Amino acid sequence: MAGGSQRVYKQRIKSTQSLKKMFRAQELIAASRISKARGRTAAAAPYERAITRAVSAVATHTSTDHPLTSERPDTNRVAVLVIASDRGMAGSYSASLIRESERLVAQLTAEGKDVALYAAGRRAISFYRYRGRELAGQWSYGSDHPQSDTAAEIADTLLGAFLAPVAEGGVGELHVVYTQFVNMVTQRPRVVRMLPLEVVEGVAVPGEHETLPLYDFEPSPEQVLDSLLPRYVRSRIFSFMLDAAASELASRQRAMHTATDNAEDLIRTYTRLANQARQADITQEISEIVSGADALAAS
Amino acid sequence: MAELNVDLVAADRKVWSGAAREVSAPSADGQIGILAGHTPLLAVLRPGIVKVSTAPGQVAVEAQVSGGFVSVDANVVTIVVDEITEVSGRESALA
Fold first, then answer.
1. Interface probe with B: pick from A53, A215, A234, most Cβ of B within 10 Å
2. Sorted alphabetically, which Gene3D superfamilies does this protein's record hold (chain A) (predicted)?
3. Of A14, A114, A172, B69, which has the maximum CB count within 10 A?
4. Does the domain at residues B4-68 carry the CATH identifier 2.60.15.10?
5. How close is the nearest chain B Cα to the Cα of A68, in Å?
6. Which CATH architecture has domain A28-205+214-254?
7. Is the pLDDT of residue B56 over 90?
8. Phi, psi at residue B51, to the nearest 5°?
């Protein structure tokens, strides 16, 4: 029986050690991928900057109305896109993201809006499916390594929903919930209203030596806008996904580091307990032998 | 002669950037050529070939693109494309 508790401790130590190895491996993988993910965010920045500048140039030089920039009062359906991760092992990453999206959904519902959920990433999909909530669209993609064509696919689906007539489930707004990468230790969930578009970038600053350039549009301002705005949405969604990927990896690295530390603590505790148990066994055995010998000597 | 300042960017990276003399791109209704001093322009691109030359007959980069747009403003040319399927010429070290 006393030997039994020793064996139990040994087993616990062993299994904790193998868990520790796994945590450690995950931590290292996340750490090695994170710089790559941040590099990709940086690599996508010129495209986003160029497209934002072009959109604001068109917006300031024309008064063209576009369906993507105008409000839709005809429907109270709104779309919410949740950009989550595919895997767990990232601490509170998924939990806080989903909490934020639930808060947004509750707020929109309170405003009398009908929410259509779009989920990207398996964690979000399984969360909503488990609760029997209907998903208008779902994508599971390599969430720690998003591709621009996945972003384009998601964006096109949502643009389609925004432009669809009411009868076909058209939505009047699009909100995106994702995790913003602030720095290695801070990532926070963020809600962005994507559609209808508001081009936030101010008026393009004209060169000091010239007047505001009057752009020539080819083939026409409407067509330029037609091709620019969907690209703008796509590039924004792609940059959200890249940001979310960097956040996921940073959270995972941190969570796995903590898990490794905890595993080490546990191993230390169990080792002490095992030693204690062994010591107790030995003491007991000695006292049994001694008392046996005493009994023999007395007889 | 004044030079153009060209940036060629794809959705996920910067492909080429530098000074050039001439840019040729597939605009909606034909190949357009851009030289220094071009009027400000925003043009939609259809799938085709973008060519950047640093001197007559010297092509710095030639790329097969899948559509995008080009903006010209005070000799700054920004070519924004969704996807580049084929590049010849030296890629910028930034890529």
1. A215
2. 3.40.1380.10, ATP synthase, gamma subunit, helix hairpin domain
3. B69
4. yes
5. 18
6. 3-Layer(aba) Sandwich (3.40)
7. no
8. -130, 130
